[in-house]
Design brief:
The chain has 118 residues and is an alpha+beta fold. Helix content is 16%, strand content 44%.
């Protein structure tokens, strides 16, 4: 009887620890180039973190600015940002990264962090 009680207690203990651990999204270090809407010159460039979880995107720049994109509609690559404005993922970088078009700017996310590899 004591063995069964200990076994059940152990199972509940392990289950409680497993549910308490945070679930992490797929996150990678990247380089982000920010272009103001309609401009062809970078306004800022630097390290960033790119996270993707169940279609939701988070881009966090080193200066603390972050972008939260949630999927919308049935077409892949269509999002709403944290302010409810439309955003789009655009092709163009191939395996080098991804482009996100937001209401006021475009974010080029490169998987290679050069020249910021330190």
């Amino acid at each position: 009887m004591k063995f069964q009680t200990r076994l059940i207690a152990t199972i509940f203990f392990v289950a409680s620890i497993a549910t308490a651990l945070p679930v992490k999204a797929d996150t990678v270090n990247a380089r982000c180039d920010i272009y103001p809407k309609g401009k062809d010159r970078v306004s800022s460039s630097g390290l960033c973190k790119f996270s993707q979880r169940q279609g939701f995107i988070r881009i966090e720049r080193k200066d603390g600015v972050s972008y939260e994109l949630r999927p919308v509609g049935k077409q892949p690559g269509n999002y709403l940002d944290q302010n409810g404005k439309r955003a789009y993922r655009q092709a163009g970088l191939g395996k080098k990264g991804q482009i996100y078009r937001l209401a006021k700017e475009s974010i080029y996310v490169y998987w290679d962090t050069a020249p910021y590899n330190r």
